[in-house]
Structure formats: C-alpha cells, structure tokens
TrEMBL record:
Alphabetical list of InterPro entries matching this protein: Ribosome_recyc_fac, Ribosome_recyc_fac_dom, RRF_sf
Gene3D superfamilies: 3.30.1360.40, Ribosome-recycling factor (1.10.132.20)
Any single GO BP term: translation
UniProt superkingdom: Eukaryota
Identification of the protein by name: Ribosome recycling factor-domain-containing protein
Ribosome recycling factor domain: residues covered: 101-269
A molecular function GO annotation: ribosomal large subunit binding
Source organism: Aspergillus pseudonomiae
Keywords, sorted A to Z: Protein biosynthesis
C-alpha cells in the first residue's frame, strides 16, 4: 500500500517530461512548415531543419522558379552570343593556327641556314638522375657566325657536357666541337643541305601545314555548329544565318590560303639552298 503513491508520483514525472519534450518537437514542426510556406533560409545553427523533406522539396521548386524568372533569362542568353555575324571564334582560331605554323617553320632549316631558335629551344638535362630539363637558351648564348657556323657560349663549365649531349641527340644532325681557345665555347658547324635533308625538312613543313589546316577546319566546324543551333532554336533569322555562313566560308578560305602560302614560301626557300 505504500508503493502506490511512489508509483503514481513516478508516473507523473514521466508524463511531465514527455509534455516538456513534445512542445519543442511541435514547435520545430511548426517552424519547418513555416519555412516551407515562406521559402525562408534555414538560420544558422538550425541543424534540426536540414532533414525536413518539405524544405528539400521547396528548395527544388525555388531552383526551378529561379531559372524561369525574368531576371535569370538574360544571364542564360549572355552565355551564347545571339549575333550570327559574330565570327570572333573563327578569326581567333585561324590566327592561332597561322601563328603556330610560322613558329614551327621558323625552327626549320630554310635556305641552307639554321635558325638559332632551333638550338636555343632544345631541352638540356643537367643531371642524369633528375627528370628536370632546362632550355638551352637559358644556359648559354647561341650566336650565328657566317651562316655556316653557330657559336654556343656556355655560362658554366659543368654545362658543357649536358649541352653537347642535347645537341647531338636532337634531330638537327649537328655535332658541337669544343673551342681550342675558350673552354666555355662550343662551335657547331652547319653542314650544307643534302637532297635527303631537304626532303626531310619539306616533310616536316608539310606536316606542320596539315596541322594548321586541320585547326582552321575545326574552328570553322565549331562556328558552323553554333549557327545551325541558332537557326534551329530560332535565335536568329534564316537570312542572317545564311549570310553569316557565307562570311564564315570566306574567312575559312582566306585562312586556308594563308596556310598554303606559308608552306609554299618555306618550300621554295628550301629548294634554293
């Protein structure tokens, strides 16, 4: 009989504890519902609302509504130019291809002379155990002398052997020789071109021309695809797309002609050697 009051008081404490817990739980649900209705952001420290399914669903609706809002449409249109006559991508691609071709042709042996850039751009491995290489032009000064001789002035004596190895192992067919009066100087005689060397140089130049031609063609293809998409999506009028395509073809033809002219000029210089 004495245990009944104790048990009843224990039950009262448990019921009061559940009452205290249910209040904040209901409050959290109410706040979550309020966030869902008002599309508010979860405040800092509100970790209990990060798992609310209604909030997740509202975020998705907010994303879809933001992309279809009038404020978001100009941003999407700014990504792709709506001007069909904007051929800047094509002109840039042609200019880059021509510049790369000129750089590759300048390193070839034209007219019986060797461009010193071909030697300066060689990579030198200073130590055998290291994979790091340095540009020869950063380690020595390359000076042409009379058209049939190139002088390499090395800054340090320890660099003589690595530089010599780099020149010999290259595809330039050159053999450096140490100078009798200066231990920091290498003399590289330039042999006269032979028929085999001319043919090999022409093959290298032709391969460079074909790469430049392909680069121009790829630039034209990208612009052509953009114009087709604009016409399909009715971003531009068909007449404007047609005129833009004519300008595109004309610019592409001029770029291809410039590439061919560079190759023909280099080929003639090789034949005169």
């Amino acid at each position: 009989m004495q245990r009944i009051p104790v048990l009843s008081s224990h039950i009262q404490r448990l019921s009061s504890s559940f009452t205290n817990v249910s209040a904040p739980v209901n409050l959290q649900r109410g706040r979550c519902w309020l966030l869902q209705e008002r599309s508010l952001e979860v405040p800092n420290g509100g970790m209990a609302f990060s798992t609310c399914p209604l909030l997740f669903k509202k975020k998705d609706k907010t994303k879809s509504s933001s992309t279809s809002s009038p404020d978001a449409r100009p941003l999407k249109a700014a990504v792709v130019s709506d001007d069909p006559y904007d051929l800047a991508q094509l002109h840039h691609g042609i200019a880059a291809a021509v510049c790369r071709l000129k750089d590759e042709l300048s390193k070839l042996r034209l007219g019986g002379r060797l461009n010193t850039d071909a030697i300066e751009n060689l990579r030198v491995q200073l130590s055998k155990g290291s994979k790091e290489t340095l540009k020869l032009g950063d380690l020595a000064q390359v000076v042409p002398k009379g058209g049939r001789m190139v002088i390499v002035l090395v800054s340090e004596e320890d660099h003589i052997k690595p530089i010599t190895s780099a020149v010999v192992s290259s595809d330039l067919s050159l053999t450096p020789q140490p100078d009798m009066h200066n231990s920091l100087q290498l003399n590289i005689p330039i042999p006269p071109p032979t028929k085999e060397s001319r043919d090999q140089t022409v093959s290298v130049a032709k391969a460079a021309m074909e790469r430049a031609t392909a680069a121009v063609r790829d630039s034209r293809s990208s612009v052509h695809k953009r114009l087709q998409d604009m016409q399909k999506k009715k971003i531009a009028r068909p007449d404007d797309v047609r005129k833009a395509q004519e300008q595109m073809e004309k610019a592409t033809e001029n770029g291809q002609r410039e590439v061919r002219d560079l190759f023909e000029a280099a080929k003639k210089a090789m034949e005169r050697a």
